[in-house]
């Protein structure tokens, strides 16, 4: 098990290295470039040349990359040249990551809590009304673009009916203490219930929008897995033992059916991060998704580099965690 | 009943039957597509008795046993007839009542020990859960009892095995574990559906010996399902031969081996390998396959494969009637033109087959 984790970590380091090279080369090949972004109106050729030399942009790419890598390993990813001008790029990530984490966790929890029981019930009543209905619903869930769903939710529930706040993470008037920067959790820890409630209300719409695709996929995987497992011989054995339906459901059906679900949850982290870019933009939710969108508009390379590298790191770490979880629930993997 | 050599352990006709199956019929599908996998099957199992259900693949053995246990899929089939167990018709019990009987009064073991065990639950839990369910034991007591049970079915180092998972055991050990689960609550009837088919030949013999020992020791009745008359030879008191969902011949084991009457039984006997034979002899399987079945309506379903076929066979369905040829008590036969002598001149005695 330990060797397995170490091997996976080494793979992760290599993957991150390759990614950083590609990312570096790609960002610098984009038209426009950092110099014109920085200079804006004052972009005379002389100014531009001076700035290029100053930033070391005339050196060959490998030299530039080597310089970047040396600094990066010391935690210096350069300074933002976009809207966060002057701020270290790493700080932009650190400050905004909790918002995205909170949103993603909430969206994932929402998807799991709804999709797994529904998937089970739909499988047990295969072909029934509830099954057909939820299958169609889940197809719609995958097909509707996230940003469209986000706009519709925002328009209906925030703008039109005014039930929930349309944007941001917390209302301006709220004076909240922040410990973890996960606002709902902070509100609970400090017992500032109105702050927690306010943060939660801000989370609901973006989380629903963000959870639509993971919900639909987890629902379908659960349903298919339960249908498969129900026909397994060991479920028949369990019934032949006269076990109660709750023991059969939990111990014999779900414990097996959840194995493919765990795998798919790991893969969904990528979809969540991608969806966060769109959702955060629509709801002006100050997370890394929003920073990423703005970074692209402003060609804020240092910030983009940090955000993408860390998003990749998170993805790799989550998938490693999923593999470990997989080995924990499936003894056949563990003892191989 | 008459004293017959070799049948002294046969608990014949004494006492009420523990299980009494009457006209059990299982139909899959409806209307024009309706297909009777089991067709008016009737038989009794007395306390302590071992009854065999024998026939080729597809003749309805598993469906019969699943219908008795009420484990057929909840949709797509119709079950009629009655299955009286200890005076109660299992087919009319509520789901909850039936659940209480399963695993406690009637238990079952299946053909494929690997797929019949839950791959992600430790063996110990899979044994203990039956005890928790029917004996109301707590985890600790059930675990200790589970270790005793594994020990009893011949699994070495049971305490360590309790924590292991099915894939860590050999095929024979898995089947032993399934037997331990089935016998955990000392059921009065055990149904074994081809319990050795998936195992190596040497392991098969061990598992059969174990089953025999356990049912004899505890007085459990056993329904032994198999396609292999060799298995029957060592175990069963009485044998029902099934063809196309119907019983075609019933006899006590010894009588069946000495004088098979149905041509199908004769064919099955001829296909048993025997150790006393020279290695050169080719086995003679029953020609054709179940795919050649014709419906029972208006004739004998076995006719296309039968070497004794006469004209009437394709005209009238043979009935299952008592066979009065003085070839043993309680014989039933469904055939217009039964065998007059054993098809094998060198007919093996059942002792030989068992060797
Ligand atoms: N769920 C089902 N739906 C439709 N037909 C079925 C179903 N289960 C079994 N059958 C059919 O019923 C017949 C009897 O099947 P059964 O499983 O009882 O055979 P078997 O004697 O146990 O054979 P085997 O030796 O292969 O286990 C077969 O023709 C089979 O195709
Ligand atoms: S009834 Fe006729 S066809 Fe059928 S088994 Fe007997 S002899 Fe053969
Ligand atoms: Mg079968």
Written account of the structure:
Chain A: It is found in: Cell membrane. Chain A: This is Peptide/nickel transport system permease protein. Chain A: Belongs to the binding-protein-dependent transport system permease family. Chain A: It comes from Ornithinimicrobium cerasi. The complex is a heterodimer of chains A (336) and B (355). Chain A is mainly α and 336 residues long. Chain A has 14 helices and no strands. Chain A has a single domain, classed as MetI-like fold (Orthogonal Bundle). In chain A, α5 packs antiparallel against α11 (245-282) and α11 (245-282) runs antiparallel to α13 (301-329). Chain A starts with a helix and ends with a helix. Chain B has 11 helices and 12 strands. In chain B, a hairpin with a 6-residue loop joins β1 and β2. In chain B, strands 6-7-8-3-9-10-12-11 form an 8-stranded mixed sheet, sandwiched between helices. Chain B has a 4-stranded antiparallel sheet with strand order 2-1-4-5, covered by helices on one side. Chain B folds into 2 domains: 42-72 and 93-105 and 188-276 and 283-354, Rossmann fold; 116-186, no CATH class. Chain A binds chain B through residues 232-234, 236-244, 247, 251-252, 255-256, 259, 329-332, 335, and chain B through 69, 71, 99-104, 107-108, 110, 112, 115-122, 125, 129-130, 133-134, 165, 167-168, 178, 181. The structure holds adenosine-5'-triphosphate, iron/sulfur cluster (SF4) and magnesium ion (MG).
List the helices and strands and how they pair.
The complex is a heterodimer of chains A (336) and B (355).
Chain A: H1 2-29, H2 33-39, H3 45-55, H4 61-73, H5 89-124, H6 129-143, H7 146-160, H8 183-189, H9 193-230, H10 233-240, H11 245-282, H12 288-298, H13 301-329, H14 331-334
Chain B: E1 19-28, E2 35-45, E3 50-54, H1 61-69, E4 77-85, E5 88-89, H2 95-101, E6 106-109, H3 123-135, H4 139-152, H5 158-162, H6 171-183, E7 189-193, H7 201-218, E8 221-226, H8 229-235, E9 238-243, E10 246-252, H9 253-258, H10 263-270, E11 321-322, E12 332-333, H11 350-354
Parallel strand pairs in B: 3-8, 3-9, 6-7, 7-8
Antiparallel strand pairs in B: 1-2, 1-4, 4-5, 9-10, 10-12, 11-12
Helix pairs in contact in B: 3-4, 3-6, 4-6, 6-7
The structure holds adenosine-5'-triphosphate, iron/sulfur cluster and magnesium ion.
Magnesium ion binds next to helix 1 of chain B.
